[in-house]
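Escalation from tier 1.

The customer reports that the assembly of two entities below gives different structure tokens on two consecutive runs. Tier 1 could not reproduce it. I'm attaching the input and our single run for tier 2 to review.
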Amino acid sequence: MAAEKTLKLEKNSLHQDNLLRIENLTKIYDGSVKAVDDVSLTVAKGEIFGLLGSSGCGKSTLLRMLAGFEVPTNGKIFLAGEDITNLPPYQRPINMMFQSYALFPHLSVWDNIAFGLRRDGMAKEKIMERVESLLKLVQLGKFAKRKPHQLSGGQQQRVALARSLAKQPKLLLLDEPLGALDKKLRESTQLELVNIIEEVGVTCVLVTHDQEEAMTISSRIAVMSEGSFLQVGTPDEIYETPNSRLIADFIGNVNIFEGVVDEDLPDHVTVKCPECTHYVGHGITGSSGMSVGVAVRPEKILLSKTKPKGKYNWCEGEVTDIAYFGAHTTYHLKLMTGMILKVQQQNRTRNLEGGFTWGDRAFAQWDDLAMIVLTH
Amino acid sequence: MMIEKMHSFLKPYLTGRQFVISVPFLWLFLLTAAPIFIVLRISLSEMDIASVANLWTWAENTLTLKINLSKYLFILHDELYVKTFISSIGYALENTFFCLILGYPFAYFMARAKTHLRPMLLMLVMLPFWTSFLLRIYAWKTLLEDNGVINNFLIWSGLIHQPIQIMHTQFSLMIGMVYAYLPFMILPLYSNLVKMDTRLLEAAADLGTSPWKTFWLMTVPLSKQGIIAGSMLVFIPTVGEYVIPELLGGPQTLNIGRVLWDEFFSNNDWSMASAVAIVMVLLILLPMAIFNKYQSKSYEGITS
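Tier 1 run:
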């Protein structure tokens, strides 16, 4: 009896917290191409959820199914507990900010924003009020009468955002929201976008191929490949504890040593690789003799001219490439096995003396919690 | 070769750019502007039985310029001409309207058809052009006559016992006109609709617009350029159309083309015919010029 009660309670709380629930969603094109393959997901209220993946991974198809432009081959979509799988786009309380915006070219900024409100048959004064407040929110009050083509890329982006927020959707979909902007503008717009979304408090699902964009904007990310989720987690979880070689390689830069588990103890393991022996300061789910990959991020490696003490977690090589980025420098170290080790060093001092140059011998070392052991 | 020779001959006078521009200009001048001026001149001259009188004469050290406006005044005062102009424009408007309501769905479905089907559909629209225009209009005669295919079929099927009069009515005229000019409406509409950004339609749907409303609020306004281009291509030539009213229209059909023909070939009154032609050109040009001016203003908004 008591157990049943708690179960019921859990179900109830699930309903309240999860705004969006996707169950076994599948989309098959032309009878055989699986664009989205049996995907399940829950998104909590107020969350900004990022779908990250390279082009063709199915993220856009998934977003289009949420918007209602594509009919799923299989599976269900629930919004606030209600099954919306078969609702047409114009009946869903979901709005989308389109890639490169899709602003209506024949309508002014004002009319673009008011478009959705008018369809709802809202009273004129209320529309006035709402549009004015949105124009204020995106700081475009002066541009209300302009046509979209008379605006800059950044301004168009804000019109698109205002238009998608106008109807106070339960869920906001963002399709590559910053994709059409240049790099400098992107950084400032990113923060602005997050501020506005947080101010409004709307739940978002965001699609992007840009991992930086996904990491900075999203509270949780799903990495997609070939129609399914490889890993779902917070940005730092995905970066620091990727669950596969694919993810480790896809998100950020990484060096992967291939080796075999030697000692396997609850508090540490050692992995023997041709380049060096790794001492990993935590236990893993595996056994000795198992082949694994040991991933080390370039920024977690320290480069020095003196040979490190101890027998673990260092290797020696020759500097073959130097890429200077201003804030940091990336060195390519050729190890004796031929493996190229990427090392990133902060340029803490302006003094460039004492740095490394092409052909230098150098020692790379890292500590025993810097590594990720990848079993697949 | 020829052009190169011409160019080397003109080189001292014209730069390459001026030469290139001068070719179409010369063409337009010789085949459009000059003929219109000749027609204008004839319309302002007196008729000497069967030849056109000179506009000016030089006698006794006096240059006499005689501009004869009587034909124009006659056109304005004679009820028949005014009626003819009105009815011609009426037919042209009616034809444009029918071509638009038939052509728009046609072009729309062509533009939304699967990509590999589109060339074939375009071919089907253009197929009639492979046969002479005149032959195709004649072919309609054999269909619409009292003893034609349609009447014979209806009698055979027992729906009617007497042939119904289709030929030489307003109806047969409209069938011929719409049939002949429909492709000119479909082609510009198609080329406009096929380029339309379908994401705009999705955006409209996303903001709560039903498909039917999306059509009126997005597709139609966004295809305005195509509607205008198609309507112009149909309206302008149908105002002065001669062959179709002559072959398919009834005896009561009032039409500028036929009036022109009569003035030239039956009455031999060249200046009257020219005056009618000039008025017709003005009637078409003026609204177009006004329209263009308005158009170029709003055009800036959509294309750039």
